[in-house]
Design a protein that fits this description.
By secondary structure, the protein is mainly beta. Helices cover about 5% and strands about 50% of the residues. A ten-stranded antiparallel beta barrel has the order 1-2-3-4-5-6-7-8-9-10. This is DUF6265 domain-containing protein.
């Protein structure tokens, strides 16, 4: 059974595009807008072990260096010393651009999405310090700190949430 927080986050990753971008750190593709050309060199700084606080608990992400045209990541949320859910994530080079894909899992590793389904975030834009995916932005503050911004939809209202991570040494 999914927790209330897990359902809340599932809503985040279930929507496609917002018609009106009212967020300061998020960008969204128009319906048929193509993604820009990019490769993994623009986000290689994401590699490593990151930890922060969000949703009343600890969040952790571990990203591998680029290999075979992709980076592999794992996420978990721990609240009151209990895992709430996991994500397996990839950022892959596809059609001369990047795509961020993920699948959610309950703490017992039962999946949220259908067997062959993934939640996909197409690349929108790259700057020196930010990589914008459709509704998800990864920002490099320094070599030891990153922010991840996500659009979260709950009960018809969409908000921009910030996850601040510090590198685990």
């Amino acid at each position: 059974m999914m927790t209330k927080g897990a359902v809340f986050l599932l809503l985040l990753f279930s929507f496609d595009v917002l018609a009106n971008n009212k967020f300061s750190n998020l960008l969204f593709l128009d319906h048929n807008q193509p993604s820009p050309t990019a490769d993994l060199s623009v986000i290689q700084w994401l590699s490593g072990h990151w930890r922060g606080e969000a949703f009343g608990g600890l969040v952790e992400e571990v990203w591998s260096p680029a290999l075979g045209g992709s980076m592999m990541g794992a996420f978990k949320l721990v609240v009151e010393d209990q895992v709430q859910f996991y994500e397996i994530e990839t950022i892959s080079e596809v059609n001369d651009s990047l795509i961020f894909r993920l699948k959610h899992f309950n703490k017992d590793l039962t999946g949220w999405e259908e067997k062959d389904a993934t939640v996909d975030f197409k690349l929108v834009k790259v700057t020196d310090s930010k990589v914008y995916f459709n509704g998800l932005t990864i920002e490099r503050i320094s070599e030891k700190e990153i922010n991840i911004y996500v659009a979260i939809e709950h009960e018809g209202k969409t908000t921009e949430e910030k996850f601040n991570y510090k590198k685990v040494e």
